[in-house]
Specification:
One of its GO terms (molecular function) is transmembrane transporter activity. 52% of the residues lie in helices and 17% in strands. By secondary structure, it is of the alpha+beta class.
Length: 759
């Protein structure tokens, strides 16, 4: 009998294969969105065992969580009996250039991210070592991450090989070679760290100290013990203080709330996909009420009807699970292409697929409970009541569609407001170049020692390219973003100004109007000011000299504004410092140049001198943004993707619902058409319900969205305005109108004679 139900359910799904595919795809998208966001939140908040006993030590006075190396060693010596081992980690990640020397004496240069730790760090954070239990026992030893080993060594064993670092790691030490003693498995907490050195290698860096609360001792007793280890600093007596990691301070609570909000948003997409899935299955089941009634007359019991519906859910859920696996693979491939330094360890990849399977089981169990309600509703149905049935109002379907539409309005409105806020904060920027002229400027970052060593040769080869018409040397790494510094006004209040450094040829290169003297890049003690900042200086009665951080600079020119300087009111202007420390070079291409081809040629020139193991960063000017700006744009993109997904879910849901309605009411539509029903009449039959659902959804979602946006970005003026709500209302209404209009157009082309004949 089970095989019979499997065949029947599969045949019914194949009958509506288009709608089955839509429902399975919607659910698969929801699963993938939820898992990716869940993986991100796990990376931000990893829960360790015995969290209730884990502590962090910090200074008692200023609540500083970091200690000097001498302070850390003092605590370890005096409290080792009471606290046991302590974990030391220098709370920063720094990049340096290093050369890997393998067992075959081959040299490979790399840019590595590193941090300093002690030997107990790996045990404290449950980091698994891959080659025995060997830890760092001397300052000239290093432990590598599994991800870096794969990149640098491939499948070879790195134990015993040598890493040679640049002198910036140890400026006062002649020791620059480190021997690899072990490899640590990748972890979500320290995923970007390549090398773990001894904290003693970098004695000037601050150290975070973690440990465990001693047995039979509470936090108050431990802090009393810590008061016995005071020391003098800047004429003040300070002592360590312990804090439980499980205690949430204001910062950690905010982070937790943000993670919860992100998970809630991701769960909305999953819920929306599940709603669309269940709505299709249950509505299709109701459309077969005559068949169900006949089965009851032939002896089918409630158990048989339940199994019939369950196997339809099983087939659909399994198909959705397989689609989600494919989508996950595509998502992982896309992330490796578009996200820098992306990589997924095998253990984490296995955890992702395991979570995917768990979600499949949980959703299947939820569906098993939900489908009992339509079975219960039909268990007393007779053949007469099904042949002469009244039209139901589809309360369940309407409620679910209302929830879906509310979620979609929330995402669309949120994306709309975030983009408006982005434009308000960063959109109104100055540029004397057209968008095409900006695209014709290529920036080459001088980001490695190998590139600096061959810089003259690289520049000579690039200048020889016929399409290069001009060049600009910059001290700052970015042209599209600026850093800030404070200016003290005459009334002693402080304000921010935007800052950039480089060759004063900057103004001519970017067509920025400037009046004043053009000096060499190494002209120290001079400065250019923007027109906005010049007006502030006039108010402060400053003419020729301006002071920043106790140093005076001579004003030698006034310019309009920096390239892409924002006029959002957060700054009072900008300044330009002449500087000759070369970190980036901009090349202007001739009009009509194939920019992709030019970038490829410049990359080939750089690669002639720089090995493939070192990064070569070449970008068009519009793509040159700081990490902060990239992060904001990534959030914009993620929100946009979620909005598009939610729109598709709603559109497909409405399309599927009207299609199933058409199937269940095709006889009614045929009779209406025979009686002369117009498209307006049929539109009223189908559209009235969706209009009501939309109005109710908007009435609930819009106030919640407005409150959420005011809580998140309350400093943006656009959030308090009402016009974007009107635009949101008509945008979503137009989307629903197009979907229903298309289906009504299809309904009007139904042949009534064929419908009556089939009936």
């Amino acid at each position: 009998m089970i095989i019979h139900y499997l065949k029947i359910s599969l045949r019914n799904l194949w009958k509506y294969k288009t709608h089955s595919l839509i429902s399975a795809l919607c659910l698969a998208v929801g699963i993938v969105c939820y898992i990716l966001v869940s993986m991100y939140c796990q990376k931000m908040e990893v829960d360790l065992p015995d969290m209730e006993r884990r502590i962090r030590l910090e200074y008692s006075q200023d609540r500083n969580s970091f200690f000097s190396m001498q302070d850390a060693q003092l605590l370890e010596d005096k409290l080792s009996r009471e606290l046991g081992k302590l974990s030391f980690s220098q709370f920063f990640h720094k990049s340096i250039e290093a050369e890997i020397i393998d067992n075959e004496q081959h040299n490979f240069p790399f840019i590595i991210n590193f941090m300093g730790v002690n030997d107990y760090y790996f045990s404290y954070y449950n980091r698994k070592l891959l080659y025995g239990s060997r830890l760092i026992q001397a300052p000239d030893e290093v432990i590598l991450s599994q991800n870096f080993v794969r990149k640098a060594y491939g499948d070879k064993n790195p134990i015993g090989t040598i890493i040679f670092t640049e002198s910036s790691l140890q400026p006062d030490s002649a020791m620059q070679s480190f021997r690899v003693v072990n490899v640590v498995e990748n972890d979500l907490l320290e995923f970007q760290t390549d090398c773990y050195f001894s904290y003693e290698v970098m004695p000037d860096q601050p150290i975070a100290i973690n440990g465990y609360l001693p047995p039979q001792m509470n936090l108050e007793a431990l802090n009393q013990l810590l008061r016995s280890v005071p020391w003098e600093r800047n004429g003040e007596t300070i002592y360590p203080e312990a804090r439980l990691l499980s205690q949430k301070d204001a910062v950690s609570m905010k982070s937790l709330l943000i993670n919860m909000l992100i998970m809630f948003i991701a769960s909305l997409i999953l819920i929306s996909g599940l709603i669309n899935f269940l709505k299709f299955i249950i509505q299709m089941f109701y459309n077969r009420q005559r068949e169900i009634a006949l089965r009851k007359c032939m002896g089918a019991n409630v158990k048989g009807l339940y199994l019939l519906l369950f196997f339809e859910v099983f087939w659909m859920m399994s198909f959705a699970f397989l689609i989600s696996l494919v989508l996950m693979e595509l998502s992982m491939s896309a992330m490796q292409i578009y996200i820098p330094n992306w990589g997924i360890p095998d253990a984490i990849l296995f955890a992702i697929y395991l979570l995917q399977f768990k979600i499949y089981i949980v959703l299947l169990a939820i569906c098993m409970l939900i489908i009992w309600f339509p079975i219960r509703r039909l268990r007393t149905a007779s053949i007469i009541s099904q042949v002469n049935r009244n039209r139901n109002k589809h309360i369940f379907r309407s409620v679910m569609m209302w929830l879906q539409l509310s979620i979609s309005i929330f995402f669309i409105g949120g994306t709309f407001v975030i983009n408006l806020g982005w434009y308000e904060a960063f959109g109104r920027t100055y540029s004397a170049l057209t968008s095409q002229e900006e695209k014709e400027i290529i920036i080459v970052k001088i980001n490695t020692q190998r590139m600096r060593q061959h810089l003259n040769s690289i520049l000579a080869d690039i200048r020889a390219l016929p399409e290069v018409t001009d060049e600009l040397k910059m001290e700052d790494n970015t042209m599209m973003s600026h850093y800030m510094q404070t200016y003290t006004k005459a009334d002693r209040s402080e304000a921010y100004v935007s800052v950039i450094k480089g060759d004063p040829h900057y103004f001519k290169f970017l067509n920025i109007p400037m009046s004043g003297k053009v000096v060499d890049a190494d002209a120290s003690g001079t400065i250019y000011v923007s027109e906005d900042f010049r007006r502030q200086l006039d108010k402060d009665s400053i003419q020729d000299m301006v002071e920043f951080y106790g140093q005076s600079y001579r004003i030698i020119g006034t310019f309009k504004a920096l390239h892409k300087e924002s006029s959002n009111g957060h700054t009072i202007g900008s300044v330009f410092y002449p500087g000759n420390q070369l970190n980036a070079i901009c090349f202007k291409m001739a009009p009509g140049t194939d920019i992709k081809l030019a970038i490829r040629r410049i990359n080939e020139i750089c690669r002639h001198y720089v090995p493939v193991t070192l990064p070569v960063e070449i970008k068009k000017l519009p793509d040159d943004k700081q990490d902060f700006m990239r992060s904001i744009q990534m959030m914009q993109g993620a929100m946009m993707i979620l909005a598009i997904v939610s729109i598709l879910l709603v559109v497909l849901s409405i399309y599927s619902a009207i299609s199933m309605d058409t199937i269940s009411r095709q006889k009614e539509m045929a009779i209406r058409k025979i009686n002369g029903a117009t498209p307006t009449t049929i539109a009223t039959v189908f559209g009235k319900a969706y209009l009501t659902i939309f109005l109710l959804a908007f009435a609930v979602a819009y106030p919640l969205l407005r409150l959420a946006m005011m809580a998140i970005i309350d400093n943006m003026k656009v959030v308090s305005e009402w016009w974007w709500g009107v635009v949101l209302f008509f945008s979503v209404a137009f989307m629903i109108f197009l979907t229903t209009a298309y289906k009504i157009y299809r309904i009007m082309h139904i042949n009534p004679a064929e419908i009556i004949k089939n009936e």
